[in-house]
Specification:
Layout lengths: L14 H5 L1 H11 L2 E4 L4 E4 L2 H8 L16 H6 L15 H9 L5 H5 L2 H14 L4 E3 H6 L1 H10 L7 H15 L6 H27 L5 H7 L1 E2 L2 E2 L2 H32 L1 H9 L4 H11 L5 E5 L4 E3 L2 E3 L4 E5 H5 L33 H18 L4 E9 L8 E7 L2
Antiparallel strand pairs: 1-2, 3-11, 4-5, 6-9, 7-8, 10-11
Helix pairs in contact: 7-9, 7-17, 9-10, 9-13, 10-11, 10-13, 11-12, 11-13, 13-15, 13-17, 15-17
Length: 401
Amino acid sequence: MKKPPTGVQLTPFDPLYLEDPYPVIAQLREQDPFHHDADLHRYFPCRYADVKAILRNSDLLTDPNNSRPDSFARHFLGREGEEVSMLFADEPRHLRLRLLVNDLFKPKAVESWRSRIEEVVDHFLDQIEGPDFDLIADFAEPVPTVVIAQMMGIPAERQEDFKRWSTLGIEAAFSPDPSEQALADAQESMDLLANFFLKEIESRRKSPGIDLISQLVASAVDGDSLTDEEIVAQCSLLLLAGNLTTTDMIGNGIRALLENPEQLAKLRDNPALIEATVEEILRYDSPVLNSSRITAQDIEYQGVPVAKGECLHVSLAGANRDPEVYENPDKLDIERPGIQHQSFGGGRHFCLGAPLARLEGQVAILRLLQRFPKLQLSTRGLKQSFVPDFRGMEYCWLSIS
């Protein structure tokens, strides 16, 4: 029997994991489901029950700066001297920020943007010319960026700048080993973006509208409101993390359907299946592979002693394909009953942008398939993107005829 995979084998630095992490994770789940990765200083739980329990455990922390100095979380996610975003904030700061922005991302509020999202999707579909196009660069990447820009009330003439700054920021923020030049370009872009947001915030204070920035400026709970810096941080978080994951969800979803023509035919015959299709896509090939929690004190988990400050790097991908929960977990089934995937995390850190991501995925995937009834993977191929903890493609060429 092969030894359980560990260390680099559980990262995109290993070509097998980069191309298809699921067989690697399945081997680990079978042999050592609460794996102690001594090489990268983390625990790697990959069963559904463990992942769900850890994500919902309010005694665990998320701020990587609270982890041990040599831990995986501190090395890859920690930023000493920086105030972490809401994504990594612990209580009470996390609850305060969440309460101030929560209403803006509830399903009813997000649904009001459906027609605008459809317009953005149709705009980029109109730009596609055959016979081949890159699903990522021509469609899956620009759609969420422009949707967020419009939700924030960014003028059309500034959206190209907005997209360029966000792209440079994403490339450095989620690269495991960015070059000095990439870091410099990203810092300049983030500075430009922050200054841009500050001017937009000042404008909304003088003349509020119905856009997202205006709503963030006006948001208040019990007399408490967001500072300008907190609004900038929230907008940046939406732009960077939110756009990347939505791009990957759309790309992974289209690829999965094209590689499973019988499922694609079901959706074409019954477009009402699109909501279930997006949930199954999120389970089948989640754009986020892993999430981290930090132990706040020495604990014992399933008989294993875990010291304070250790990183529990839970495998969302492993949970989503656990055969104890899903029959034929490696099969795409858009009519699968009872999907309760872990792709948006869980507990108090459940993804705030989940309703928006779901809506964008439903609109983008269905309208692309309806616009191009002969859509298929092109012989020009595809390439997985090298971004730890995320699962997406750098490019994916499709043929429309």
